[in-house]
Specification:
The chain is α/β, with parallel strands linked by helices. It has six helices and 14 strands. It folds into two domains: 140 residues, Rossmann fold (3-Layer(aba) Sandwich), CATH 3.40.50.1360; 66 residues, Alpha-Beta Plaits (2-Layer Sandwich). Bound molecules: ribulose-5-phosphate (5RP).
Length: 228
């Protein structure tokens, strides 16, 4: 008997490809573009190789995206060499109707937030499964300084969360990741502000302050553009 899981996975891949290509419309030839991390962004990078005129360069949020960008001949600049970017293109693990997101499923949240903060516009590219009414079903990734992991885990437990250390993962910055299950994030901005000031937190995976300006959502009917 054939498994029903395969067609669903294939169609999700197709939606990622569609939104990756749609994001090209937000990139000006000759500009420097901010580039996120993940399988949807990989589709965007593939599409970027076809942009007439190409880009002058990119600021990348991970070693993985940097390698892919270099492979298609895009020069990668340090974030410190750039004062601002017109646009940052990235995926999300969840996005709500106001453009707030959970990010960090791929572990690149800290650099993603740094590059997003340089950009005037955050264009989120996501398949339709990522749109949620309330953030928190996807476990919240939080990058922490290793010596503070247990202390921060206890704080999350007091908030009703179930933090799980992402085994064997060391981020590009030498940090560890806690994935916090069971949080109902009613006020993303308030929770981001609270968690971000706990000692030892490097980055909280809630992107409310750096929320999306636009989301290109891949749906069965095509690419839906949401503006926030
Ligand atoms: C990586 C991220 C990604 O944007 C997020 O995990 C979505 O990934 P994908 O496009 O593979 O579904 O935040 O840290």
């Amino acid at each position: 008997m054939s498994s029903p899981a395969k067609p669903a996975a294939a169609s999700q891949a197709e939606l990622k490809r569609l939104v990756g290509e749609a994001a090209l419309a937000y990139v000006q030839a000759g500009s420097i573009v901010g580039v996120g991390t993940g399988s949807t962004v990989n589709c965007f990078i593939d599409a970027l190789a076809t942009l007439p005129g190409g880009v002058a360069g990119a600021v990348s949020s991970s070693e993985a995206s940097t390698a892919r960008l270099r492979a298609i001949g895009v020069p990668v600049l340090e974030a410190s060499a750039v004062e601002k970017l017109a646009v940052y293109i990235d995926g999300a693990d969840e996005i709500d109707a106001s453009g707030c997101m959970i990010k960090g499923g791929g572990g690149a949240l800290t650099r993603e937030k740094i590059v997003a903060d340089l950009a005037e516009r955050f264009v989120c590219i996501a398949d339709g499964s990522k749109l949620v009414e309330q953030l928190g079903r996807f476990p919240l990734p939080v990058e922490v300084v290793p010596m503070a992991a247990a202390q921060i885990a206890r704080r999350f437990a007091k908030l009703g969360g179930r933090p799980v250390l992402r085994e064997g993962v060391v981020t590009d910055n030498g940090g560890h990741i806690l994935d916090v299950h069971g949080l109902a994030i009613a006020d993303p901005a308030a929770m981001e502000a609270e968690v971000s000031q706990w000692p030892g937190v490097v980055c909280c995976g809630i992107f409310a302050r750096n929320r999306a300006s636009i989301c290109l959502l891949g749906t069965a009917e095509g690419v839906r553009t949401m503006r926030f």
